[in-house]
Design goal:
Blueprint: H1 3-10, H2 12-35, E1 123-128, E2 133-135, E3 138-140, E4 147-153, E5 156-157, E6 162-170, E7 173-180, E8 202-212, E9 217-227
Parallel strand pairs: 3-9
Antiparallel strand pairs: 1-4, 2-3, 4-5, 6-7, 6-8, 8-9
């Protein structure tokens, strides 16, 4: 046996250690080879490490490492919507028509809401009362029937703003004169006969001359007979 073989035979432990070291080196080289390759498709992405723990974290003095880590998914920024009214049409498309809003029509008062106009000719009628009346247009002597007026123009019947001048005649003789400050006061007789106005038998006329604040004038007359009692 040669000198080299004699030394290996004398140290079997060294031989075993060398073999084991060779095997360990081969295994480590194989791991490095597999770890350097890309992960196969479908493999889950490695977890993104959270923020570095600060002093005082778990096991520290007063901190905590339970803070949630932000998602690894990338946040997509929403694009601003375009205003359909300001969007320019593409080539070959007509430009949209711009409409101007129509302003609301001004309120015009109705013609019916306007106050009636006091125009046109006056209609004046003398209405005799019924006290002492003994027939059509016939009264008993010394009676006091009283009288009112009905006055109307284009705006309707007049109440205020008109004035009456009364004249009572027997034949051609003036028997009584009176004035009324209104054409038709409610519930009041405009013309009251004096106690002796109709004391004599004969033909009488009662005339009402009317004027208004709108410069209108007209007259109305009632003719009647007075007979003995």
């Amino acid at each position: 046996m040669s000198g080299g073989q004699t030394k290996l035979a004398e140290h079997p432990v060294l031989v075993v250690i060398g073999v084991i070291a060779t095997i360990i080196g081969a295994v480590a080289a194989g791991k490095d080879l597999f770890s350097s390759e890309d992960p196969p498709p479908g493999a889950s992405a490695p977890a993104v490490p959270g923020p570095a723990s600060t002093p005082g974290g778990r096991g520290g003095t007063g901190g905590t490492d339970d803070t949630p880590t932000p998602s690894a998914a990338r946040t997509r920024t929403a694009e601003p919507e375009q205003d359909p009214e300001t969007t320019e049409p593409g080539p070959g498309f007509p430009r949209p028509e711009t409409r101007t809003p129509t302003p609301p029509a001004a309120d015009v008062p109705s013609a019916k809401a306007q106050p009636p106009a006091h125009t046109g000719p006056l209609l004046v009628r003398v209405d005799m009362g019924t006290n002492g009346k003994v027939g059509p247009h016939t009264y008993r002597a010394r009676s006091t029937p009283g009288a009112d007026t009905y006055v109307q123009d284009a705006g309707g019947r007049l109440d205020r703003g008109c004035y009456v001048q009364w004249t009572l005649k027997r034949g051609g003789e003036v028997v009584q004169l009176a004035r009324s400050e209104r054409c038709r006061p409610p519930g009041i007789t405009l013309f009251n006969f004096d106690s002796g106005s109709l004391g004599e038998v004969g033909s009488y006329t009662l005339t009402a001359d009317v004027t208004t604040d709108w410069n209108q004038t007209a007259s109305g007359t009632a003719t009647f007979e007075v007979v003995p009692r």
